[in-house]
Amino acid sequence: MSDSEEPQQKTVIGIAFGNSNSSIAFTSLDGKAEVIANEEGDRQIPSVLSYVGDEEYHGAQAKSQLIRNPKNTIAYFRDFLGKSFADIDPTNAHSSAHPIQHETGVAFSVEEKTDAEPSTLTVSEVTTRHIKRLQESAADFLGKPIDGCVITVPTDFSEAQRKLLSEASKASGLEVLQIIHEPVASLLAYTAREETSHPVDKTVLVLDIGGTRTDAAVIASRGGMFTLLATQHDYELGGRQFDDALVDHFSKEFIKKHKTDPRENERSLAKLKLECEATKKTLSLSTSAQISIESLAGGFDFHSTVNRLRFDLLSKKLVDQIVGLVESVVNKAGMDLTDINEVILAGGTSHTPKIASRIQQLFPSNTAVQAPATNPNALNPSELSARGAAIQASLIAEFEAEDIEQSTHPAVTVTPHLPKPIGVAIHSPEGDEGKAEDKVYVFLDAETAVPARRTATFVGTQVGGDVLIRIVEAKRESVDVTPPKEVKEKTNGTDEDDDDDEEEEEERVIKRVTEVEKVIAEALLKDVKKGQKVEVMLNVAGDLTLTITARVIGGKGGIRGTVPGRAQ
Amino acid sequence: MNVVATKHTLLPAEPEWPHEGGFHILEHLSEPTHRNLEPVGPHYLAHARRKRHHRTFSEDDRIVAAQQAKNVEDADPGEISEPEDAMLLSRDPKDWKNQDHYAVLGISKYRWKATDEQIKRAHRKKVLKHHPDKKAAAGGVDDDNFFKCIQKAMEILTDPVKRRQYDSVDEFADVDPPSRKAKGNIYKLWNPVFDSESRFSKKKPVPRFGDDKSTKAEVEEFYNFWYNFDSWRTFEYLDEDVPDDNENRDQKRHVERKNKAARAKRKTEDTARLRKIVDDALAMDVRLQKFRKEEKLQKDAKKIAREAEEKRLAEEAKKKAEEDARRKEEEEAVLKASKADAKKAKEAAKNAAKKNKRVLRKGAEDANYFHADGAAPPDVISNVLADVELLITKLDNEELDVVAKKLAGLKVSDEIKSVLVDSIRGTVSKGSTAEGDFKVLLK
After folding, report:
1. What Å distances lie between residue B149 and A28, B81, B85, B102, B235, CA to CA?
2. B127, B203, B238, B387: most buried, per Cβ within 10 A?
3. What residues of A are in contact with residue B10 (Cβ under 8 Å)?
4. Which pTM was predicted?
C-alpha cells in the first residue's frame, strides 16, 4: 500500500550559481519556469556570506557588510572553487575577505564567532553554506523540502570543479541531478518558451555579461538539440568594470568639490562602489539617475546625477571590448556574423541598453537580439540561467540517478555532426540565373547531430512532368548584390529566413546564398501534375547513411533511395 | 513529425533519364565532425533515449506512443467484473444483513481494500446491467430484488461509518490462523493472517510479520505493535433490530441494553482472540529463538574475547614482573662488583701510598739524612725525618706517587734532596705549608 505513495512529484529547482549573484528557479505545474525571491525579496541573490558577531548574513544583507566589515565578508568565491592558490585571480576579492592558501586549495579566514580565533573556511565549505541558504529560501517559498537541483556553471568549469561543486551541494543536503552550462541553460530558457514542439534550426550566440566576467558562446540549435561550437571568455570584463567607470567619474566630481579622493579610503570606495552599482541599474531603466551618499569621504555628503549618454561615453571602451569578444568567438567557430540567427544576452549587465544596441548594429537587422532594450518580449537576462536550469530539472526530476548518468555519458553525448549543410536543389526563377538567389533548400544545416530527420514539402513543378530531386551538400557564399534596389526586393520573395541576410554598410549590400557544392544523389519522381505538392524526407543515420523518401501528396508515385555511409 | 511547407519549386527533370531505376548515387556524404552535444533539453533526452536503446526515429515514436497509451490504461482502477451466480441473483433484499455486499457489487476480491472509486464504478456497472427498467423493457418479469440488493450494498459501502461496521464483521475477509501444530513455512502461514487483521488498526502503517530476513528490531516492533493493538473493530452490524418507538418503550430499551452488552462482549472476545493469535504466532516464531541463539553466541564470543584479553593481560603482567626482578638482580650484581672494585682500588692506593712514604723516608735515609759525612747525628736525623713526615702528610696520594717515582733509583744525596725540596716548594706554593714549618730541608 505504501507503494502507491511512492511516485510523488519530486520538488526540484534550478540554481544559477554565479560569481557575483545567484538565483533559484522552479518550474510551476503549467511548465513555466519562475525565479524565486528570497526572504528579502531579491531574485538576484548576491553570492556573498558575511560573519558579524555570531550571525551569518547572506545575500544583500551580507553585501552591505562590504562597507563596514569587509574582512569577514566572503564574496566572489565561485571561480576559486577547485583551483589551486597559484591559479586564482584575487583581484575581485580585494575589497572583501582575502583568499588564502589552504592545503591544495583556496580558503578564507574569517571571524565566525565573537571572541574566538578566526576560522579557516575552504571555498567548498563556503559554497556548501551558500547553497544551503539558497535551498532554504527555495524550500520556504515552495513550502516543501527540495529533493534535487540542477546547477549552471560556465563552460570552462573543469571536471574537478564540477565534482567539487556537486560534493559541496550534497554536503548542504541538496542532491545535484545535473550540472549544465550557463549559455546552454539560457538558450533552453528561450527555446522552452516557444510553443512549437519542433524548434527551428538556428545558430545562436549567447553573450553572458556577468558581474566579474564575460563569456560568449556560439551554439548550434538543431532540432532542439544544442551543440557548443565555440566559446570565448574575458575574465576582466564585466559589470564591475562598468561600475568602476562610474566610480571614476563620480570620484573626479567629488575631488573637484572637496579636494578629497574617495577612492583612497577603503570604506569610502566600498560605499561609492555599492551606490554606483545601483546607479548603473537605474540607468538601464531610465535616462538619468541620481546618486547620493551620506558622508562619503572627509565627512562630506555627495549628491549628483548622471545621464545615460554620459554613462554610454564612459563605458564606450568596455562596450568595444564586448563587441571584440563577440567577433572573436564567431571567428573561432569558423563562421561569419551573418551566419548567426539569434543573439541572446544574458547576465545582469545585459540590461545596459547601449550593449544591446551595439550588438544589434553589429549583426544584420533580421538577426534577433534578445535583450530588454531591443526586444520588449525578451526574458530578464539575469534570470535566464536559473530558468534554464529549472526547466532541465523538471525534465529529469523523475529520472533515476543512473539514468541521468547514462544519458550524460560521453558515449551518448559525443555524436557525429554534419560538416556541411545537406539539402535539395531548387529551381531559381527565370531570368535570375547567376543572381543572388538560393540554389539549395537546406534540410539539415551544418553541425546537425546525426541521426537526424527532416521533412519538407515543395511545389512539384510549375508546368507538370517529371521532377528531379537532387540531394546536394551545400555551401554558403557572400554575394555582393549592391546594384539596383528594386531587384533586390524582387528577389526577396522567399520565406527562407536564414539565407537572405543583408548587411547594409553605406551602399553595399551583401547577401548570403546557398550554392551547390557536391551532388550526392538524384532521384526521379515521374509524372507530377502541375501544382501538386511533393513531400521529401531526408533521414541521416548515425553512420551517415542517407535515406531519401519522396512522394507526391495525394498521388500514388513515390520513391525511396539510400546512400550508404562511407564506411560501408 | 514536423513538416515544413516551402514554396520552392523542385528542378524539372531532363527529358532523358540516363540511369536505371528512379534513384542514382553520385557521392557519399562528407566525413562528420565529432562534437559533444549539450545534455540539456527535451529533444536531447529523446536523442539519448534513442541512442541508448538503439532505436530509430520511427521505432522510438511508436514505443513512446505505446507507453503513453499504456499510461492511460493503468489509470483505470482495476478490473471489476466477476461472474454472478444464480444464488446471489436470487437473494432476498430484506435479508440484507447477511448479504455479502462486495460480492453483490462484484468486487469480492478487493473487499476492504476496494477504493471508493472502485466501488462507484462497480456500482455503476451493476446498475447498468440490473436496472429494473431495463429488465422490464427486455420483456422479463418485473423483478427488482437484486437491484435493491445492489442499492443496499452501495448504501453501506459508500457510507464510511456503515462500511466500517460491515467490514468489522466481514467474515469473508478473515483469514483463519493456523493451528499450533501446523507445519510448514511460518511466514506463509502467518503473513496473510496479520495482513487481514491489520485492517482494523487505527494506526497506520501496520508492521508486517515479515520473513526470515527481518531484523531483531523489526520483529520486536511487530510484537510490540500487535500486543498493543488499537482496533476500531465494532459490532453494531450484528445488533438485533431495535423495535420502533411507538411499540413498547421498555422493550426497546431492553433490546438496546442487550445490544450494548453484546457489543461489549464481542469486543472483549475479539481482543482476546487477537491476543491468542499473537501468542500463537510468538510461540511458533522461530526467529526469536534464532535471535536468542545469536545473542548468546555474541555474548559468548564477547566473553571468550574478554577472557582471552584477561589472560593475555595477566600473562603480560607476569612477564613484566619477571623482567623487573631479573633487571633488579643484575643491577644489584653490578653494584656489588663495583663496590668490591672500589674497595680493592682503595686498598691498592693505600698500599701504594704506604710504599711511596717508605720510598720518601728511605730516600732521606739513603742520602744519609743529607749529612755531609759519617753517621748523621740523631738530632739531624730526627729533624730530617720530621720534615719528611710533614711533607708526606701534606702530599696526597698522586703527588706522593710522583715524588716516589722521581726518587726511585736516585742515590746521590743532593739529587734526592733537590727532589724533596722541589716537592716541598710545590706544597709551599700551593699554600698548604709554610717554609718555616720545615726545619732543615730548606736550609
Report:
1. 48, 17, 14, 11, 22
2. B387
3. 424-427, 458-461, 467-469, 525, 534
4. 0.62
B49 vs A462 pLDDT, higher one: B49
Mean pLDDT of all residues in B326-349: 93
**Domain A12-173+387-412 grouped into CATH 3.40.50.620:** no
Whether A381 contacts A346, CB under 8 Å: yes
Alpha-carbon span B443 to B441, nearest angstrom: 6
ipTM of model over 0.85: no
Listing DSSP states for A247-308 in one string gives HHHHHHHHHHHHS--GGGSHHHHHHHHHHHHHHHHHHHHSSEEEEEEEEEETTEEEEEEEEH
Q: Angle formed by the axes of helices B42-52 and B57-74, to 10°?
A: 100
Distance, in Å, from the CA atom of B190 to the CA atom of B215, rounded to the nearest integer, reads 17
Provide the pLDDT for residue A311. Answer: 94
With beta carbons less than 8 A apart as the criterion, state whether A474 and A446 touch. no
Q: Tell me if the bond preceding B205 is cis, omega within 30° of 0.
A: yes
Of residues A131, A134, A122, the one with CA closest to residue A83: A122
Q: Which residues of B touch A461 (CB under 8 A)?
A: 9-10, 12
8 A C-beta contact, residue A511 and residue A421: no
A522/B26 Cβ within 8 A:
yes
Name the residue with cell 623487573. Answer: B324
Grid coordinates representing B290?
534464532
Which residue of chain B is at minimal alpha-carbon distance from A395?
B42
One-letter amino acid for residue B56 of the chain: T
- The H-assigned helical ranges of A42-158 are 60-68, 123-142
Mean pLDDT of A138-145: 91
Question: Model confidence over B422-437: pLDDT tens digits?
Answer: 877 777 787 777 777 7
Name the pLDDT band for B78 (thresholds 50, 70, 90): low
Domains of chain B with CATH codes: 67-168 (1.10.287), 174-284 (no CATH), 351-437 (1.10.8.840)
Are the CB atoms for B224 and B203 separated by under 8 Å? no
Do A451 and A539 form a contact (C-beta atoms < 8 A)?
Answer: yes
Nearest to A523 among B23, B29, B31 (CB): B23
Which among A181, A410, A523 has the least Cβ separation from residue B22? A523
Q: Which three cell numbers stand for residue B126?
A: 451493476
Of A135 and A116, more confident = A135
Q: Where in chain A is the domain with CATH 3.30.420.40?
A: 12-173+387-412, 197-236+318-378
The amino acid occupying position A306 is V
Instruction: Give mean pLDDT, residues B179-205.
Output: 84
**Is the CB of residue A209 less than 8 Å from the CB of residue A350?**
yes
The domain A197-236+318-378 having CATH identifier 3.30.40.10: the answer here is no
| CA angle, residues A368, A370, A372, in degrees to nearest 5 | 130
CB contact under 8 A, A461 and B40: no
Q: What percent of chain A has pLDDT over 90?
A: 45
What CATH number is given for A239-313 in this structure?
A: 3.90.640.10
Q: Check A566 against B50: CB less than 8 A apart.
A: no
H/E run at residue B327: helix B286-366
CA A20/CA A144 separation, integer angstroms: 27
What confidence tens digit (pLDDT) does each residue in A342-382 have?
A: 999 999 999 999 999 999 999 988 889 999 888 888 999 99
Q: What is the pLDDT of residue A3?
A: 37
Domain A417-482+508-563 has CATH 2.60.34.10: yes
Supply the mean pLDDT for chain A. 85
Contacts of residue A548 in chain B, CB cutoff 8 Å? 23
Spatial distance between the Cα atoms of A94 and A81, rounded to a whole number of angstroms = 17
Residues of chain B numbered 294-313 and touching chain A (CB < 8 Å): none
Where residue B140 falls among pLDDT bands split at 50, 70, 90? low
The amino acid at B254: H
